[in-house]
Amino acid sequence: MNHLKVLLRFFVFYISAVNTKGYGIHSPYMFRVVRYLFQDKYAYYCFDKIEKQRKRFLNNRQTVFIRDFGTGCDRYTKISEIAARSVKKAKYGQLLFRLVNDLNPQIIVELGTSLGITTAYLASVNSKSRCYSFEGSPELVKIAGESFRELGVTNVEIIEGNIDSTLKSKLSELPAVDFIFIDANHSYSAVIEYFDLLIEKMSENAVIVVDDIYWSEDMQKAWAKIKCHNKVKSTIDIFEMGIIYLNPDLNYKNYRVRY
Fold first, then answer.
1. CB-based burial of residue 248 (10 Å sphere; 0-12 exposed, 13-18 middle, 19+ buried)?
2. Are strands 234-237 and 253-256 parallel, antiparallel or unpaired?
3. Which positions ≥6 away from 244 have C-beta within 8 Å?
4. 3-state DSSP call for residue 219?
5. Inter-residue contact 218 to 190 (CB < 8 Å)
6. What is the per-residue pLDDT across 15-43, written as a single tens digit (0 to 9) for each?
7. What is the pLDDT of residues 147-159, one digit of tens each?
8. Crossing angle of helices 188-199 and 217-227, rounded to 10°
């Protein structure tokens, strides 16, 4: 990742994010999402315990072996470094919680479990929902599983292995998927392949969130292609993530929002 290029992308995004706080949004549905859901500051019941778990990870100097199918760069690294660099910040995990809470999905799919912090936000909304989280690294699967037990999160199934191999077979077993968070292999070809597989399993009013849409030129290219898919109705670009709405009652529109 070229940090100077990302900084330039952020500057361009910032000055073009004219829909912040709902400005210029004519759709009542999307206005409600941006004006109220994004501005919600209420600390829900699970936020504190999930953030305490994050803090424990940030203080954990244990070294673990990471199998990385995305980059192909298997490596040893400290749990604290993973928590600091690879896990979504609290504000974004909590936004995902609010998005799930607003939609009330029954089936959630996450690509990239990591330490399970973001997964916990996705799954904690409703214990009756089912969250299927895909992770390639056995060590991370073990850590995340232990974390879920400590947090009392019981509705997550982790699917271990290379997502390129496990996603298609698992999707064939599932009913329609209502909410998806994509945070795995960041190459253009992988993201588009994941999206094309997932879009065929989505329920009518489903929401898809793609992480790190400005992380690289590959991710920008993938995000641009996804926005043009004929099933995509509205998108919200908050720089860190892209949020996709498939609701057929919405008019096609792309919004940019500072968050």
1. exposed
2. parallel
3. 207, 208, 209, 210, 226, 227, 232, 234, 235
4. helix
5. no
6. 999 999 999 999 999 999 999 999 998 99
7. 999 999 999 999 9
8. 30
